[in-house]
Structure formats: C-alpha cells, structure tokens
Amino acid sequence: MKEVILDLYLGPSLSFVFLFWNVGLCTSLKASCPPGWYTSKTSQSCIKLFLSRKSWDDARKACQAQGADLLTNYNREKEKLIYEERYTLLGEACWIGLNDRNHEGSFTWLDDGQKIINLPWYRGEPTGNREDCVIVKNTRILYIFLFDERKCVR
Hints:
Blueprint: E1 2-13, E2 19-29, E3 38-39, E4 45-51, H1 56-65, E5 69-70, H2 76-84, E6 92-99, E7 107-109, E8 115-116, E9 133-138, E10 145-150
C-alpha cells in the first residue's frame, strides 16, 4: 500500500474571500494502512492530513520524517484518491515532488529524475521566474486540477 500524507499549509490569501492552502502530499510503500489513515478504494494508497504551515522544503522534511516523500508521478488515480477523501476543497493546493531546481524550466520528479514535458499548467505557467517547486491545485471547477510553480521557501 502507498502511504500518502497531506500536510496542510495555511498560507496567504489569494483574495479577500478565499484562503490559499498548500498541502504537502507524501507517499511511501506500506503493506497496509496504519490506524487513523484512510485507504483509497482505487489505488491501494493510504492518506492522512496533518494541519501545519509549511514551505515545500519543510513539507518534504515532514514527509521524510514519516518514512515517506512528497508525492511523485502524479496522475489521475492519485488525484482521485485526494478527491475521494475530500481533502481538495476549492482553492486548495498540494505540494508535490516535482521541481526545476537543477535547471530552470526542466521539471523532474524527486524519485527518479524523470523529466516532465506536458502538464496541465495554469495559464501563464510555468513563468521561469525561479519559482522552482510545483503545486497541484483544485480549480474552482470541481475535480479539475492544474499545476502551478511556486517558491519553495515562504
């Protein structure tokens, strides 16, 4: 079983009404889900929410402290897991294990260094402005997730 840790980032407002949340998604292989974790019906993954404000770097450290790492190789199945557990309220954003720290504009996964070419980016993203870490965000339209580049340290 894959273990997914959601690390909620209570960040700055996007507007006067909507709060912006960054959630660090962690994964690790497990035989079964630990007590207090939710099991996905479709992906043999476990999911848990931790409420704390974190940068990408700190979210990754928190994942690693749990024997996991930020979610990599993000796909529709993993997206569905997050959605199933209702952790993706409108406007939430999740840190994932994707960045372009080594070479601006060349996004790679943490686990295997695989370069990512085609992602559903928000309009105007990536900007190339040294915002090296990636979030995936639930848009205002239910179950539509787009990628955005953010600064790794807040």
